[in-house]
Sequence to fold (321 residues):
Amino acid sequence: MEVPTLSALPDSILLQILELLPIRDRLGGARVCRRWHRLVRDKLLWRHLDLTPYKVSSKALWHLLRNQLRGNLRTLRARGSLHSVRKQEAFSPALMHALGKQCPDFHRLCLSETDLRSLSYDCMPPSLTTLELSRCEIPSAWFQGPSSGTFPRIRHLVIQNVPAFSNQHLASIARQGTLKTLVVSEAYRLTDGGIQAAAPHLEELESFALRQCSIGDLATHFIGRHMKRLRLLDLSSSSSLTDTCLPCLSGLASLEVLRLEACRGFSPEAVATACRALPRLKCLDLSKVGFDEQTVHQIQAELPNCFVTCAASGGVAKVKT
Fold:
């Protein structure tokens, strides 16, 4: 009986195998034989690229762009050198311009630990619709950019643990009027005043998350007043919120998901009353709010069309009557 080998596999299976390999091993596969060299250059392998496990140099990125990414790249994840001894960043304005020009389908960029002070916002590829920044350094006027230039039309923005993110950043990105999804986590410089200034420009927003931010009851007034299209609202770990803010959400007639995880300033009665005023609410997250199981069951009984989840010992309890 003939022993099966990799060469006996069809191209489609080999491509799936190559896709699972680390980038360096994938590139090394091109030296195995002519067939593997052809497969390694297949555009399907280079549509979604995750470079976060590596310390990538600018030279390496240019090499990838010329040989693999051109015309193929759609999603890129990368880690900068903000917290490393050598502060030289791999991303430069020239590289960003080249990515925008040579990769017209490049729509999602996820950067972590990257210093953006030498990389202006107008350098971002205009094809970008999703931008995710985690533990990055952002200048105060970064989202404004110069008065002229081609800007990406960002529809989905995620800001996670970026200490510099402030009211000014939010106002600048909100004024562009393109956002559909906004996630802000651990941004302690963002205040009620920042939400007030930005909310009139976020009327098209469909998903809004403010996790571990320094917002108070007043912020929800402007959310409920201006963001009528919201389908998801996440206020997790907003410790300053109280019952006073909940009636402000009654204007969100399209809201389907409300997450109040670790918001301990609410009473069960106020939560139930507020949720009854939301006709399309399908999911309510009450994890870590301090309600006992009986109280959660009572809230669920008042919301027969809503699925309620809550933290329980040893995991997450899902309550549905």
